[in-house]
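Hello forum,

I keep getting stuck at the same step: I have a sequence, I want structure tokens, and every attempt I make locally crashes halfway through. Rather than fight my setup again tonight, could one of you with a working pipeline run this one for me? It's a single chain of 548 residues.
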Amino acid sequence: MEQQNLMFDFRPQRRVLTSILIAGLYLRLSKEDVKFGYSVSIETQEAILRAYCEKNGITIHDVYIDDGLSGGNYNRPDFIRMKQDMDDGVLNCVITKDLSRLGRDHIMTDYLTEIYFPAMGIRYIAVDDNVDTQLRPDNEMIPIKNLFNDWHLRDTSKKVKNAKRQRMKMGLFVHSQAPYGYMKDPNDKNRLIIDPEAASVVRLIQNLMMQGLGVVKICRELETQKILKPAAYKALKGDKRFARYLKDPSKNYKWQPATVQKILKDITYLGCLDNHRTEVINYKTKQRVTIPQNEHIVVENTQEALLEQDNYDIIQHLMRSRHRAQKHDYENIFKRIVFCAHCGGRMHIARKEKKSGEEILTYRCLKYYHYPDKCMKGNHVNYNVVYRLVESELRKMIALFQDDEKCIDLLKEKFSATAQVSRLKVRLQEKISRRTEIQKLIRQLYEDHVKKILDTKNYQGLLLSYQQELEDIDNDILSLQNEMKRYEASEGNIELFKNKIKEFAGFEKLTANMVNQLIERIEISHKQIIDGEEVTPIKIVFRYIGSY
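Reply #2:
Ran it on my machine without issues. Output:
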């Protein structure tokens, strides 16, 4: 984790402990600690530590306070300040109320107590846990207590997530910032009310689209009318989180197409709340993943609408049917729906021209080229290969759905919830088993490091490798869980798909509109050798019914 690498590079020269202790008192209290009643106040912590220092004749250099910050985050302002004082030789002692105040990530806290503090000649004392690295340097309870604190962090993260999700289901607004066009009700922060000034701009954008203007022309029109972009508007309204946008007034009216598109697509303006769009999948890395649309928590009639449903549908149709002017003589009809099966990133089209003048279009995973640590497969496939496969599969689907009774029976069997869930459960259990195995390897790795079997450089390298694999597994587990839900296709979903695909019976060639209405995503896997031939596995996930 970046925060760990950033924080704990220690100097190689070991310092000598002296009898004169110059201590830093470190106090921490997280919002979750307060909410769930797991700790005492900052004031109480300070009183306990000052009394301890007075009793034991310890000089206090400074008090370091991180109030409202999680124990899983080591980039805390005063924690960093305290570390700098240790690096500068100002402190030779650190005192906390208990080990959990130092941090709740057991790997990092073990690293501090077992490696960093001894290397820096720092005496560490946790008053309530009876920890003193000078008087009791071989306290075997420290790693156990750190593991317990880590479990507490995991448990608290789970409780906070569940509590937030329940509030979403109740139709409460749970985010820090209100969507543009709305503001939080002064009398109820969990309810949205219309912001008249911003709402008028939202309605203007919607009307301009219905008049036939594209998002780029809408941006130009807003700039011509000297309408502040959302970030600048919020900054001028006193929101300090956007204060940086006031540094360059010339950019205050510079609207971006992505901003306009977001406003035009947001169902919040229909008077509902669209929550659970993203989720933190790992309480340590805080990595967020995008949640599929069908898993969002949508509650209707939560606030006054800024747009009627019929007009919203028209706008979405207009946006889907519009195409930007092409720089080349080709149309990318699979835009935004082709993904790398290895890393999950969206694949982009690349153009290459041969000496003969022939143009070759290829979908490539850009993460492989720009972020090789996130995708090591380098998936790529010719555009025409994707086109021919999709065209062939859609013609098969159209032929299949000519016989209503036959296709319903066939699809019920194909998308049987029981069969699909059973298959996915096996894969899910394999991922969970591997996760448990890696966790054991990490614990063994730590023991080998403590016993000097493994040096620090190799320890950190292997640790980061295992942590990355854990992160990938967590992503896979979430993906499998989502897929299990998606495959619980009902007869109603099959009927919807049947009606959609019949609209395109007898099509001559694929169009972007057709593809977007029938296909949710296309996943490209790494090239494989099958029966002596090189092939690229391609998975098509249809709307309503999943992969076929």
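The longest strand covers residues 59-67. If your local run keeps crashing, start a new thread with the error log.
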